[in-house]
């Protein structure tokens, strides 16, 4: 009598991973491509999801809080979309920055040096755009007062879209620069975003020099505290510094205090 064997079948979801083999290995090209694509995506997101909120205003208003809540929700949606497309597997970023730089007894990875230089170039370009161009003047006018900007003939919706696109483009450049230092995954920017928010609060919102100095203070504070407390807990030091600055100077170190009517 022939023997029969039953085979158990199970339904398995396709295992997809983030394929980075087709990306350009030239770092400047990768940064420019990422900035262009992500900047356009930011403009589309602003026009589709944020336009009604930006028309209602911002700041210390219900619409302003709505924009913050929408931002958190949008980040969760985008991370889940990325998870469905590429999966949750961490992948190495195929960009080689080379060996270490040796400065006496200090060994500095080349990726860190290139990231610092690229960050300075981006900050200088952003400063020149905001301070020495007509578009930058219009952006600052819209940030100061939308109603007066309308009266001055500025296309406020266009400037807001430009701001969203520019912010997303700079974030994309940061992602490309940080990618070689750690594995590329869906949630790679979550912790960095938290530290960037802490740096912006410490330096003061609306101040570019404040954001730079705030970021340096957060990094120095983390590394100094790691010498006395286990390094596995160093990620909380940024929040501790944020709380300390808010207790002593709520507007930040370089922020401008303004009075708002209740």
Description:
By secondary structure, this protein is mostly helical. It has 2 domains: 27-186, no CATH class; 189-262. It contains 9 helices and 2 strands. It has a two-stranded antiparallel ribbon with strand order 1-2. A hairpin with a 2-residue loop joins strand 1 (100-103) and strand 2. Helix 1 (27-55) crosses helix 2, helix 3 packs across helix 4 (134-144) and helix 7 runs parallel beside helix 9 (237-248). Residues 1-24 have low confidence and may be disordered.
Number of discrete domains: 2
Radius of gyration: 22 Å
Oligomer: single chain
| N-end to C-end Cα span | 89 Å
Secondary-structure element series: HHEEHHHHHHH
From the spread of the alpha carbons, the general shape counts as globular
Helix content bin: 55-70%
Strand order of the largest sheet: 1-2
Total number of beta strands: 2
Largest sheet: 2 strands, antiparallel
Beta-strand residue fraction: under 5%
Class from secondary-structure proportions: mainly alpha
* Mean pLDDT over all positions: 77
**Number of helical segments with 4 or more residues:** 9
- Uncertain runs with pLDDT below 50, 5 residues or more? 1-24
